[in-house]
Amino acid sequence: MSAVSPNQTQDLAWLLRGLGEEVPVIRGSVLLSSDGMLKAAHGFDRASAEQLAALASGLFSLGRSAGTKFDNNNEVRQVVVELKFSQLFISWAGYNSVLAVLARAEADPAVVGFEMARLIKAVRPFLHTAARPAATTSDHDRSI
Fold first, then answer.
1. What's a Pfam family in this record (predicted)?
2. What is the pTM assigned to this prediction?
3. 38-70: per-residue pLDDT in tens?
4. Structurally, what CATH architecture does the domain formed by 6-132 represent?
């Protein structure tokens, strides 16, 4: 399984930029690991991108929990949050990866969802995030 190396992470911003150019109602987007680590962003300053990544990770995790409890499956296709002036779309983007897109309120959800799915399908192997190694006891002891 292919994973994004650290030097490829910055290269992924052009994919998000292209998505924004394809769908002008998109205000910005972030690619993140499923545990909330920001991998790439477009349209946000660093602090806002990191905050959106953390929020998206939490909402995606809630979706997985709901699926496990009520659908006997933890696979989440998409989470959509409709705000007063924006719409937030969160989709699985590959192994251990999530794509979050913030669009203006007037965005057509079908168009945004279709373009997100098309992007993910086209480049999914490059969006995978390798699992982080578990901390060992000695690693924990050193940080104290």
1. Robl_LC7
2. 0.80
3. 999 999 999 999 999 999 999 999 999 999 999
4. 2-Layer Sandwich (3.30)
